[in-house]
């Protein structure tokens, strides 16, 4: 009997949808003949005694989940997400650099430093990439610190705020769409696909509007109803990062698909897997076969 550790924190378990998904994951593992147990940060020293580790909490390098991933990796224990994937996906400049290197289609993208902040440079960005522009602070997650700017004055307001957090930030062409495809990829193969319908009051899948958080709608979509080009692009994007579990966000505007970003530790608790009931079984089999 193999032992699967599911790394969580109290914030994770405080969300009813996440808790339900985690219990389902545990039950699936046990139905497959494995022992599964939740590991909290205070229990991190139990990780070396596991046969595999599945991290289900925030994974940026400043979070203890990254320490858990490193601990598992050091002991040769298969882990999702692995430390390298966390490092890449938690830094948008690193992530887009990997996608560019592997010739994965993304919106036209420029990396901007604090030394570039001149009116002439900003004017050229609008002339080259169009209006509006999307600005992203590299450590952004959950659509935080992603802003749409319509003019040079707003560009500088947002840029100066981002430069206080990082020496560089990302500027991208704006691609308009009513929804994003989310392609879940595991080990270089399609795991699930869904649509994230963007709320009409924003351009992001999650945003704070008038003090309230608004979320995208989620619609699981069978593989046969997903454009093949979207699936192949999602797989190519995931392979550019690694061989783990990723959620690839794709816009398919006028038939031209492009990757908006690649997420490690993708959500699997809001109905993304409705048409793919074997998602947790496949993740567990992938981990324990490694």
What do these coordinates show?
- The protein has three domains: 3-81, 3-Layer(aba) Sandwich (Rossmann fold); 89-104 and 176-264, D-amino Acid Aminotransferase, Chain A, domain 1, CATH 3.30.470.20; 109-173, ATP-grasp fold, A domain (Dna Ligase, domain 1, 2-Layer Sandwich), CATH 3.30.1490.
- Helices cover 33% and strands 28% of the residues.
- It has nine helices and 15 strands.
- The strands form four sheets. A five-stranded antiparallel sheet has the order 13-10-9-14-15.
- A hairpin with a 2-residue loop joins strand 9 (179-186) and strand 10 (189-197).
- The model has no long low-confidence stretch (mean pLDDT 92).
Structure summary:
The chain has 290 residues and is of the alpha+beta class. It contains nine helices and 15 strands. The protein has three domains: 3-81, Rossmann fold (3-Layer(aba) Sandwich); 89-104 and 176-264, ATP-grasp fold, B domain (D-amino Acid Aminotransferase, Chain A, domain 1); 109-173, ATP-grasp fold, A domain (Dna Ligase, domain 1), CATH 3.30.1490.20.
Rg, Å, rounded: 19 Å
Quaternary structure classification: single chain
Separation of the first and last Cα atoms: 15 Å
Q: What order do the SSEs take from the amino end to the carboxyl end, as H and E?
A: EHHEEHEHHEHEEHEEEEEEHEEH
How many distinct folded domains? Answer: 3
Share of β-strand residues? 25-35%
Order of strands across the widest beta sheet? 13-10-9-14-15
The biggest sheet amounts to: 5 strands, antiparallel
Mean pLDDT: 92
Estimated helix fraction: 25-40%
The computed structural class is alpha+beta
Kindly provide the name of the CATH class of the largest domain.
Alpha Beta
**The CATH topology of the largest domain is what?**
D-amino Acid Aminotransferase, Chain A, domain 1
CATH H-level superfamily of the largest domain: ATP-grasp fold, B domain
The poorly predicted ranges are: none
Shape: globular
Q: How many alpha or pi helices? A: 9
The appropriate CATH architecture of the largest domain is 2-Layer Sandwich
Number of strands: 15
